[in-house]
């Protein structure tokens, strides 16, 4: 059986990332379909085939017939549903499955003890790898936080005490974690979509691999702050905080059922903490080169973000 991938189905293609993934796949030359729930009203390019599904195994297996790859962009709250997706892929003879990762490194030993919401992804990851013997290949794509998207999120609209990942560009405020010098990796959201498409054009290189990509593999919070102040001509109000304290606060919120705030606080802490969750460094530099991703400029990204923020 040829390893070349030509036909691709996207699950969750109506979300912020999913829409960009569909566009990137079309631009790369794939024949693209999307599988959406009955209630979805998202419009796609004329070349995209749209299937409605209840996400049952029978429904998905029918949709996946004749498809080379399935890309999951489903929300983090539905990660457990992906076991059904994998089973449907195997039944339909799909060659490659990309699960909904696109964040921090959930393969780290015991990371679920620090960040509880990673437990579901770790469990599913073990399930997916265990299906190699059934003929399904996989690629997990780790990207760190969606950098430009994250910077444009309004702390006020999201009812958070701080901006996402500590940044509040509307008010020119930042929560600086620990020393501010901890390296982290992050990726602009359009680059995430381009990386996913490139995984499929480099199917042999990425077969059964954990792939780490990043627009900025070795960034620090202090570097971002200095660039933002230089480009905006504004001094930011800086508040100091501890990653350990914020992680504990976020986990306590999640246990109380305050999911969104707890999730944001825990993710923010894990970005800058010295746990390695979002520290890809050389791994991202290696995979960026393999996938032939263009090098990106921090100033260019921040100029665009500041323009969006100031509209």
UniProtKB/TrEMBL annotation:
Family matches, as Pfam families: NmrA
Cited CDD domains: PCBER_SDR_a
InterPro entries registered for this protein in UniProt: NAD(P)-bd_dom_sf (IPR036291), NmrA-like (IPR008030), NmrA/Isoflavone_reductase-like (IPR051609), PCBER-like (IPR045312)
Any GO MF annotation of the entry: oxidoreductase activity
Gene3D superfamilies the UniProt entry points to: NAD(P)-binding Rossmann-like Domain, UDP-galactose 4-epimerase, domain 1
Chain ranges passing through the membrane: none
UniProt keywords, alphabetically: NADP, Oxidoreductase
Domain NmrA-like: 6-245
Protein name: NmrA-like domain-containing protein
